Amino acid sequence: MTVNDQNPTLALEVQGVSHRYGARLALDAVSLAVAPASFTLLLGLNGAGKSTLFSLITRLYATRVGRISIYGHDIGREPAAALGQLGVVFQSRALDIDISVEQNLVYHAALHGIGRREALVRARAALARVDLADRLHERVAKLSGGQMRRVEIARALLHEPRLLLLDEPTVGLDVNARASILKHVRGLLAEERIGVLWATHLIDEAAPGDDVVILHRGRVLANGPIDAIVAQNGEKDLAGVFAKLAQDPGSDDAGVAQ
Amino acid sequence: MSAPDAYVWRDLTLTQHFICLKGIVWREGLRFVHQRERFVSALVRPLVWLFIFAAGFRQVLGVSIIPPYETYVLYDVYITPGLMAMIQLFNGMQSSLTMVYDRETGGMRTLLVSPFPRWFLLSSKLLAGTFVSILQVYAYLAIAYFWDIEAPPIGYVAIIPALMLSGLMLGALGMLISSLVKQLENFSGVMNFVIFPMFFASSALYPLWRVKESSPLLYYVCELNPFTHATELIRFALYGKVAGSSLVVVLACTVVFLAGAIIAYDPARGFLARRGARAPGA
Questions:
Q1: B-chain residues near A51 (CB < 8 A)
Q2: I need a labelling partner for A62 at 20 to 30 A (CA). Which of A230, B19, B198, B230 fits?
Q3: Is A24 in Cβ contact with B105 (below 8 Å)?
Q4: Angle CA(A105)–CA(B33)–CA(B254) in degrees, nearest 5?
């Protein structure tokens, strides 16, 4: 395969990616694609391989088997071009809580080569988008969990990425905060044509029209628009499909919210 | 944008590299200012050595005239460069501890997902840590000045390049260690096995000719210890002189440690990938 096989009109393209930790196979020939202006739900239980996949897409680890490209730029061969278009909200907190929202955002803009003045303009706009315009000078420590998440989303959007990855962004948040974050991210699709890959184990975060990738024990068990997947599996909804596919004898599926 | 869903990547300019470097240094400075306990403990540590340890040993240990000193010096004058290097040693280890901590939170990951080359990001981080350590050293020197530890005026300027180098070397060592440490809990072991041996088996507390008299073997260990050379580089610089061989050793060690750290954090070759199993939900 050559670089030309990678589709520059896809926000994210993962082709046949496998990854092992020692003897354990964490990802087994995973392929998926995220189109611009689409919302793809990466659905899997804890231990399914979601975080490993995110570590590969963000180039924390090198992709040894298979390939990953962002808008046609191979993550290994052209990391700057690929990462420049990527915004990430990590599962663990990435903000310094001792300093202000503004200082955090200026720092993260600098990591993308954006100077202070421009950073402040963008920070204001990004915060306004997540309804936190009045919190620019607040210390991060004073924000609630949901507000921190929204600041993280604003942070991830500062360099105007065209692919946004979110790794279980609603973990530990209450119902309202979850709904608000989903609403903000879905708003981005319509306004900015950003491709979104949203990893979660919560089925109710899916909405009609989303694409879904079900990852289980490192393998993709289903991939496509929700309706198609539901129809293919002869179930009445996504929860039914997920319960059917991600069922392991003897395992505890209590982590799946309905 | 030409087409709605196609995009053209523009290479990062030199100015953007500078913005990135400045941002990383600025953030390190901010963190330092906002973590007051860290600043105080960084200052108290060498001062305890100076006010208590050195005062106690003052009468026991006379230090003969050895370069760069031109007269007999008091023991507290002798150990000052060693304490300056100690500040940097602790700072280097501390910033590597921050890296382990950052890795467990998302801080390190946001740094590494930046489109700048990884060697550049790590070097910037290292420079930022060194910058903070130099601030600490000057704060120490200001207090020491009132304790009658005075260097020639030129010394206060000449130490800047020396502190830069020794700071980079110790920071790079810390960074290399941080890539090898799995979790925060393992770090106290590193303190015991790295900081204490490096500090005690060096010329920081006693001149090496004295060590040689009591144990030739220990003398060679001290000579091989990069920390000895960081100390001597600073000691000579404080008197406006250059410790040639120490300069070479410190330079060489900086290059080796930094290269090691960059390799360790390289996604393709690094150790990170092999320990990924620890990541939540991996």
A1: 279-282
A2: B19
A3: no
A4: 90
